[in-house]
Amino acid sequence: MPIDILRSDGDEPLRLRSDRSMQRIRRGAYVDRASFEALPEDARHEVWVRAVAAARPGAIFARESALALAQLPHGRPEAVFTIGDPGASGRRAGVVNAQSPVADVDVLIEDGIARCTPAAALAQLARVGRQIDAVSALDAALHRRIATKEEVTDALGRQGRRGQRRAEWVVAFADPLAESVGESFSRVQLHRLGAPVPLLQVRVQTRLGPRFPDFLWERPGRRPLGGEFDGAWKYGVIADANGVQPVDAVIREKRREDALREHIDTLHWMWDHVMQPTRLGAMLAQAHIRVRATLLPGW
User: Fold this and answer.
1) What is this structure's pTM?
2) pLDDT below 50 — which residues of the chain?
3) 107-110 and 204-206: which strand pairing?
4) SS3 for 227?
5) C-alpha 61: how far from its chain's center?
6) Which domains does the chain have, with CATH numbers?
7) Cβ distance 187 to 199 under 8 Å?
8) Measured CA distances, 153 to 64, 149, 164, 165, 171 (Å)
């Protein structure tokens, strides 16, 4: 659990509401404001889920909420998702419940909280969630060996017909070689752009050792083209992993990049290119990678 949730009853909420050091999560649930605000945005949903679990101990969490508890990517859900409660329907107090039954084999309990297994939650998200979120979640689950494609397909067979074809596409498209949410998002947008399918994490031997660009395209008559998704956190992660200052990490990474460019051309993009894929498409076209004039639709 990322931070402690304080439950309150009686007159306690009056004190907590006036305490500026506390953040109200939902009725009767508060957390330390500084700790909550320090959490990455994608980690805050788990706090909401655990607050609901404290208020509804019999709830079974599903979809993005189950994935958050499993520490898997889950997008930016605007509600907490539960399943299997025949007495609740629709959206209430920020919780969306699906009345459809869930098989015992698709439920597990950890820390006293019931949730769908990763495979079942991945299947649910692939059926009814955003394409880009479903791919990033399954990519991460495969990469970390939390679930297999076979397990997700098996769980799909116990769920409703709605969205089955969408889910089958996600399962087929997912790849364990994708190493971050940014790479997964990039893969979906490259698909929507109609770009040739890139190779992932191909080893390129340089004078400074092997490098593994996120993406690689062969270009007949030209040098191969590498593609790198650079999240804003990249150099901080590199620094932490090597115990060096960020500026030194930047210098070392620049030297490795120069060595890589002796063998292939490279493109770098960030979140703004991924979220505005026409910009990414323009970069690829300039690098002689064929893309579509119009984006394929997402869902």
Assistant:
1) 0.88
2) 235-239, 241
3) unpaired
4) strand
5) 17
6) 40-176 (no CATH), 183-286 (3.40.1350)
7) no
8) 18, 6, 10, 11, 8
